């Protein structure tokens, strides 16, 4: 598995924690920033490139972190083929992989701490899509995207 990860200025600490986790798990990753120091940056500038790498097949999944995770998830979901879920608990992280086959995870650094973020990411990275009845639902989403985007 290969993962692209990025954050805006509000998610740098958790991005570092998740990079450390992926190194421990021996998961290949691309760190796409930000290297923003104390300056403010715009989350779409980081969400769109990660999402595009996922849909183009350059990586298998993406992880995005901002202050709340909301801006990153909204931005990522504008990219056709992305199913980004905002998760702040491990149950949701597992369910969103099993039932929704999410390919991008968003989290909020101002909402959760680094320990919980690691737990969420680990569950999300290790959970597989269960398909079955859920595949039909994912197909409906893809069909809608094809017709309306």
From TrEMBL:
Highest taxon of source: Bacteria
Stated name of the protein: Ribose-5-phosphate isomerase B
Enzyme class: isomerase
Any one GO molecular function term: ribose-5-phosphate isomerase activity
E.C. designation(s): 5.3.1.6
Protein family: Belongs to the LacAB/RpiB family.
NCBIfam families reported in the protein's UniProt record: PRK05571.1 (NF004051), rpiB (TIGR01120), rpiB_lacA_lacB (TIGR00689)
TM helices/strands, residue ranges: none
Gene3D superfamilies: Sugar-phosphate isomerase, RpiB/LacA/LacB
Keyword set includes Membrane: no
Keywords: Isomerase
């Amino acid at each position: 598995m290969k993962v692209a990860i990025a954050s805006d200025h509000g998610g740098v600490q958790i991005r570092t924690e998740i990079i450390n986790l992926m190194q421990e798990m021996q998961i290949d990753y691309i760190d796409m920033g930000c290297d923003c120091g104390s300056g403010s940056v715009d989350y779409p500038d980081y969400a769109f490139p990660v999402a595009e790498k996922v849909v183009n097949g350059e990586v298998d999944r993406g992880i995005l972190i901002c202050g709340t995770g909301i801006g990153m998830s909204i931005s990522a979901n504008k990219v056709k083929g992305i199913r980004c879920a905002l998760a702040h608990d491990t149950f949701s992280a597992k369910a969103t992989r099993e039932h929704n086959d999410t390919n991008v995870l968003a989290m909020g650094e101002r909402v959760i701490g680094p320990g919980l973020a690691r737990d969420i990411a680990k569950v999300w990275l290790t959970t597989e899509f269960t398909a079955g009845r859920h595949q039909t639902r994912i197909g409906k989403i893809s069909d809608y995207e094809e017709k309306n985007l």
